[in-house]
Amino acid sequence: MAEQSTQSIEVDAAPAEIMAVIADLPAYPEWAKAVRETEVLATDDEGRAKQVRFTLDSGPVKDVYTLEYDWAADGLSVSWHLVKGQMQKAQNGRYLLEPHGERTKVTYTLSVELVLPMIGLLRRKAEKMIMDTALKELKRRAEGKG
Question: What is the pTM of this model?
Answer without folding.
Answer: 0.89
